[in-house]
Design brief:
The chain is mostly helical and 251 residues long. It has twelve helices and no strands. It has two domains: 85 residues, no CATH class; 133 residues, Serine Threonine Protein Phosphatase 5, Tetratricopeptide repeat, CATH 1.25.40. The longest helix is centred in the N-terminal third of the chain and has 69 residues. The N and C termini lie far apart (106 Å).
Amino acid sequence: MTGNTKKKMKEDLDKLFSQYLLGELSAEEKLEFEKNLENDADFKDKFDDYRIGMIAGERIQYKELESKVNSIIKDEKERKKQRNLKLIVGLIILLLSAVAIFYYTSKENNQPEFLYATYYKAPPYSVERGNSELDTIQQMKSNFAKTNWPWIIEFESKLSASQKTLPIIQSMIAHALLNANENEKAISLFKQIANNSDSTDLADNLYYIGLSYLKIREIDSSLVYLNKAISSKSYFPDKKDAETIIDKLKK
């Protein structure tokens, strides 16, 4: 018997054993197979060897599958661990960024330039028409409302001596100078107004002097005049703003 013949016979037997175990034989084939198991010891031994081999193979496949599953689970746990680590790192970076932004913003909000820009408001003015003097004031107030600061500064030269002493005229010119960045002139005129102010508007003028010093970053002088405005007994609608500025400057 040649090797090929033996191989063919073994393949035929393996196929037959497999069909029997898988229930693929017909009733007659199954009956004949089981008779061979009873009457042919060699046939039975070969069948037992095949079945043992199949069981061993299944166990090997199971072990391989189990190893692959465990490897997949391990890899997934590692990936999940890495994702969690990245998430934690991302949250830490986000938190640190938020803290830095808050600190920077808080610090910026206490800067003189920011405080000046936040709290300075040019006063609103209203006047009734009637005579030439009031018409002159009306012209200035109209341009003041339009924030036409150069016009107001230039128009000062056209005013009469008596008009130049009017507090409302002086106030508009001082604010125009301040908004045109002629800060020293504005401060000088605000101080002149404050020295001549009656008790009703003294606090306002002191407050604007404090804001003017704030604009040019002279903090000590700004604090002096803001405190004077608060201490003044005159009506002071911006008192809370002045207190807030002082509190922020001291931080």
